[in-house]
Write the structure tokens for this entry.
Amino acid sequence: RKEVEQDPGPFNVPEGATVAFNCTYSNSASQSFFWYRQDCRKEPKLLMSVYSSGNEDGRFTAQLNRASQYISLLIRDSKLSDSATYLCVVNMASGGSYIPTFGRGTSLIVHP
Amino acid sequence: EPEVTQTPSHQVTQMGQEVILRCVPISNHLYFYWYRQILGQKVEFLVSFYNNEISEKSEIFDDQFSVERPDGSNFTLKIRSTKLEDSAMYFCARTNEAFFGQGTRLTVV
């Protein structure tokens, strides 16, 4: 079973749309969850951490569901500049410590 | 100004050669990570380094890899005998919430 799974997409949406991504993880002992965005051939950039209570940063909302072992990212009022690959990252328990484990990413294309 | 600077931005090397990738943090942090990303694939954790010692390493980080902080500032990843499959982007990051450097693209020919 893959450790961190994401739908690769692409999600192709018009400007102004709302789009949601999910990410599932295999290890229930995981802690610390993050969403990053990565532009083509660039470094990943932290978008937001994901907390159990859910958190919001402007147009972005992240949720964590520990029981079902998934996290989600909602983007409202999509902008052209939101076009990127969105990476789910989970710190997975491994022999007494935690290893940052990345999903393959979900591609988002926002068109005019 | 980036939090972390990596050099070189691109390195081409012949198979079997040694390469050293460098990472320079702007501020004096103790905790660093190295990752790699093969073209078209996911980012993979290699090693974490805390206070001048390896903290965690992945299965990828075998005997041909090593990390050092030779002068207390620069942070290096050495690949002793490069293979074609080592071709990838290598990212250095500080803290596990990870301010990534811009990466070094390593091409092994």
